[in-house]
């Protein structure tokens, strides 16, 4: 199972790119066939493909459905995910419990309830901050260990110098007789 992360503001461009890839893989007349299957004007489909128009979410959902995809699945279906222009990060999820939690999170976000979305946002931010704090604490521990080793080496160096006694000073009288 894969979970596709796409920022909301990147969805129209992501959709356009996936649709363009699909259209490019089809024979001539694909836009016209898609228009007939969705009931969306060929002009609108062309404008979505050219980036002149984002299309409404309803239109994008109709297009995805006509191509045999769930909307989210369509957004994640692009084969060329290495481009820098908004390709989603795909995360393989093998743990069914994590998958279930992600699906529940998605449901909360899609329901449009601002109170639920705010609560979810607060929980995610708190979790993220805890993870960052833990990472920072680990980095601080490593830095402290390195500083302690450097300090120990300096102490050992000073102890050797002290045990060797004070440096001899040349008074200028040695060798005179």
For the termini, the CA-CA separation is 95 Å
Global geometry: elongated
Enumerate the spans where pLDDT stays under 50 for 5 or more consecutive residues.
79-89
Provide the succession of SSEs.
EHHHHHEHH
**Tally of DSSP helical segments:** 7
Radius of gyration: 32 Å
The major sheet is characterized as: 2 strands, antiparallel
Count the beta strands.
2
Strand content: under 5%
- The side-by-side strand order for the widest beta sheet comes to 1-2
Q: What does this molecule look like?
A:
- This protein is mainly alpha-helical and 177 residues long.
- It folds into 2 domains: 91 residues; 70 residues.
- Helix content is 64%, strand content 5%.
- A two-stranded antiparallel sheet has the order 1-2.
- The longest helix is centred in the C-terminal third of the chain and has 50 residues.
Provide a concise account of the structure shown.
The protein has helices at residues 11-24, 30-38, 42-50, 57-66, 71-75, 96-111, 114-163; strands at residues 2-5, 89-92. It is mainly alpha-helical.
